[in-house]
Design a protein that fits this description.
two-stranded antiparallel sheet
C-alpha cells in the first residue's frame, strides 16, 4: 500500500466510524521523525536533494528553476 492509497481507502469507509478508526490504527503510515522522507519539496513534493538553507524548503531541481527569480546569481 502506497502512501496515497490509504487516504483513498479512508474516504471510502469514512461514514463507518468504527471501521475507519480500526483502519487508521493498523494502516496509516507512521509519522517520520528523521530521515529523507521527513521533508518534502514545497513546490513539487519530491523527497530527495532537499535544500532547506535560508528557509527555502525546495528540492535542487526546483531551486535551479526559481533561483534567479528569488535573487540568486549564477557566477560560472
Amino acid at each position: 500500500m502506497t502512501a496515497s492509497d490509504w487516504r483513498k481507502v479512508l474516504k471510502q469507509i469514512d461514514t463507518k466510524t468504527v471501521k475507519a478508526q480500526r483502519f487508521l490504527k493498523h494502516n496509516k503510515p507512521k509519522e517520520r521523525t528523521t530521515g529523507i522522507a521527513k521533508k518534502k519539496c514545497e513546490r513539487c513534493g519530491r523527497f530527495g536533494a532537499h535544500i532547506k538553507s535560508y528557509g527555502l524548503n525546495v528540492c535542487r531541481h526546483c531551486f535551479r528553476e526559481i533561483a534567479e527569480e528569488i535573487g540568486f546569481k549564477k557566477y560560472s
